[in-house]
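In response to the reviewer comment on reproducibility (Comment 2.3), we provide here a single inverse folding case reported in full, input and output, so that an independent group could reproduce the run without further information from us. The structure tokens appear first.
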């Protein structure tokens, strides 16, 4: 099925012209969807689902540079090609700084130039996304890595304190993980970590964040969730893992449990480092008290 490109331009004639140019492409064929205003364009970009976007510089009283910045702020990763009637270098540079991947002057656009620009933007977009994943995701489990988790924790902590919302944190450790590696080999251990990661991600909301904190340790950040709610989630995660029969690297019937430590902001901490330390202290207590259990910071 052809991929869809979004055109954001307040001139319907430009839509018809671009549609005709798409029809003359020599390679991949694309569908073209058009919106004529800043507001519609921003909502479409934020919603995703497009292979690329062609964005006009002039959008009534607002401009495409402002729209790019607003879309990027809403985590838009759709490759954007900037269109303008101006040829000044300052527009070119400003568009690239804002987040556009290429730049075309309307009066100079041909089907070949447009096709080349789209192909370039799509390829560069794929490369940038791959680099982003390498920088933010754990290679083994696909979860957030420690660095990205720390960044998100700072953002969510600041937001929670500003608006007076609770924020829950669960630190999780796979019980007796060394015995799995020693008894069945590291490939089995890796498979267990991947499956634990999958189950953790499945059991929380899409607004929550799950990260591989390091080794066999995971972190779960629960937005707008108090200590009681966080403890309930942690108990569900423990029960889910304990109820699974793992098959890892050809070894069937492995039983795995986790221990969890719970802390909640602002009662248990206010700074990010203190927050993690509180949940980690509760996790240590859970391990000391027999594993396969949840302990809150208030219980330590």
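Designed residues, in position order:
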């Amino acid at each position: 099925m052809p991929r869809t490109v979004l055109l954001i331009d307040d001139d319907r004639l430009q839509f018809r012209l671009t549609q005709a140019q798409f029809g003359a492409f020599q390679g991949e064929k694309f569908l073209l969807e058009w919106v004529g205003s800043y507001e519609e364009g921003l909502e479409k970009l934020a919603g995703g689902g497009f292979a690329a976007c062609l964005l006009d510089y002039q959008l009534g009283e607002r401009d495409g540079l402002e729209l790019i910045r607003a879309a990027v702020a809403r985590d838009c990763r759709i490759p954007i090609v900037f269109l303008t009637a101006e040829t000044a270098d300052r527009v070119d540079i400003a568009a690239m700084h804002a987040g556009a991947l290429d730049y075309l002057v309307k009066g100079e656009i041909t089907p070949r130039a447009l096709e080349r620009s789209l192909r370039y933007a799509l390829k560069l977009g794929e490369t940038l996304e791959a680099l982003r994943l390498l920088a933010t995701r754990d290679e083994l489990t696909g979860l957030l890595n420690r660095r990205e988790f720390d960044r998100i924790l700072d953002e969510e902590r600041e937001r929670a304190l500003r608006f007076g919302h609770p924020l829950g944190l669960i630190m999780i450790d796979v019980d007796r993980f060394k015995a799995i590696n020693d008894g069945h080999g590291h490939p089995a251990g890796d498979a267990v970590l991947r499956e634990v990661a999958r189950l953790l991600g499945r059991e929380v909301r899409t607004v929550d964040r799950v990260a591989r904190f390091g080794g066999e340790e995971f972190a779960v950040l629960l937005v707008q969730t108090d200590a009681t709610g966080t403890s309930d989630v942690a108990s569900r995660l423990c029960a889910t893992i304990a109820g699974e029969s793992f098959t890892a690297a050809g070894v069937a019937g492995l039983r795995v449990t986790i221990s969890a430590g719970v802390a909640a902001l602002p009662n248990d901490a206010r700074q990010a480092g203190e927050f993690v330390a509180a949940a980690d202290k509760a996790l240590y207590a859970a391990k000391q008290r027999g594993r396969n259990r949840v302990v809150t910071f208030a219980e330590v």
